[in-house]
Predict the structure.
Amino acid sequence: MIRYYNHNGDFKLESGDVATRLTIAYHTYGTLNADASNVVWVCHAFTASSDVADWWKGAVEEGSLLDPTKYFIVCANCLGSCYGTEIYDASVEIPFLTMRDLGQVHSLLADHLGLKKIHKLIGGSTGGMQAMEWAYAEPWRFDHLYLLATVPYTSAWVQASSEAQRMAISGAKEPQKGLEAARAISMLQFRGEDPYNLTQDDSTTDKLKDFKVCSYQRYQGEKFERRFKVSNYLSLLGSLDNHNIGRGRGGVAKALSDINVPTTVVSISSDIIFPPRDVRVLADNIPNAQYFEIDSVWGHDGFLLEMKQLTAIIHNK
Amino acid sequence: MIRYYNHNGDFKLESGDVATRLTIAYHTYGTLNADASNVVWVCHAFTASSDVADWWKGAVEEGSLLDPTKYFIVCANCLGSCYGTEIYDASVEIPFLTMRDLGQVHSLLADHLGLKKIHKLIGGSTGGMQAMEWAYAEPWRFDHLYLLATVPYTSAWVQASSEAQRMAISGAKEPQKGLEAARAISMLQFRGEDPYNLTQDDSTTDKLKDFKVCSYQRYQGEKFERRFKVSNYLSLLGSLDNHNIGRGRGGVAKALSDINVPTTVVSISSDIIFPPRDVRVLADNIPNAQYFEIDSVWGHDGFLLEMKQLTAIIHNK
């Protein structure tokens, strides 16, 4: 069940803007134990929602990664999204956000819920960016940090995709409909080469046009356009682009060396948006970190799909 | 100097359409020798022109790859392009083309120029696709074939990018302006990860927005929109998507095994649109082929930039 917390106080953004009010949408699963030592906090990726059981298939089940019979699991809809978490700032239509702002929202909700200690903080993709920002800001709060298929800063190549998406949206007859092309563009990197070639290959047919990947791209675009709002998407794209754990903190290596939380870092072998060589930089610089690479053909989505390998890694830590 | 050949006869396309007239624009450099044994034919890539000396910097020079003091060099603007080669078919605004149609145009021009034998046929990228189609159709014409940074068929991942580009164009307020986003999208693959990260990195700055890669993407989009025509671009995209040397010929391996021309295949280590593992399939299946991989950080563009390594390979063959 979705719940809401209305934070009635100023919320200062990294940009200097101040929001006057904030609503945070969240889900919980399982029960908090007596000494509040069983909290697992999940930061969701990009355009997902607070309903982990919905988007992370098989994760919220007895014996699985997020076992609700053992853990009290919390997931908040990230700031910038259109699934319930909302910022109120009359001065701008599209709030300018950073991953640090997104991280701060989780902290506010944890305080509201009275959760001083969090046993496991888990974030994949842009969820991992929020998690590392939160862990940097409040290392005392966490027993263990899990960073999955995520990177210390967003590369120029990924920023280039975001800009192509903004160009498609701003040039569109209707910006909202521009989300269709934007989604098709973003999938080139986050789904990636191998998954497309494995599932959408037409090279053994005699087709000259109407390849199955064409309808796949359009279908994914239309599906996304129906479920997301263009102004929110632009906010999220901006926060992805400016993700940089090292900004104003003496650089990436220095900032990571200050994350004083035992950390497990996991990459996916076929991930091209956040490739293993970039993910590995996290483990190379966080002092108490271990690194694992999951062998998977599913690209970036592997962190959602390789449940067995991921559960084995996280349960052993 | 650009020249034109007007072919006044039917030109049958693979789709079954018949064009009633065809103009072929081309450049030549150097002088044909007495026994016509010094012909080097270059098939240009995607949106380039017949002016090789303009787009292949340093190639058309004494001592270089295309030495005009030794060779008679010919380059025709490919069918579908907007640089002089034109098809006349009143029935359609955007002709539906395949790489086989593009290959056939070179054959018509060679016949017109009286060039029965071609010493070297060189094609990079989609130029290589045309070259392999031409060599398949008329193997007797060539002493040697050079396939650079090209593949036997277009992958689903590359088709997915084309579809995202078509979505950006068809959704644009003005289709012609949609070329800007299309170019920005296409560069994600053909420029590729490493070149973006090497030249457009902002991760050591404290910027929150306006990353240099953003203006780079917009600049490249605008520059392209000024020089290319959207209807031609859509034709070329279609021919890229349906490139498949094996179509109707018993599959890729069988078709390649029928290319009875000594062949040199070259890939670029950091090329992600036509990665070495895909390029290599050409050399693995063409009976008399040698394979080289050029070590380069410049992605797909490496075949245009790594002149020294490429010249060494081609001069030795």
Remarks:
- The CA atoms of residues 2 and 27 of chain A lie 5 Å apart.
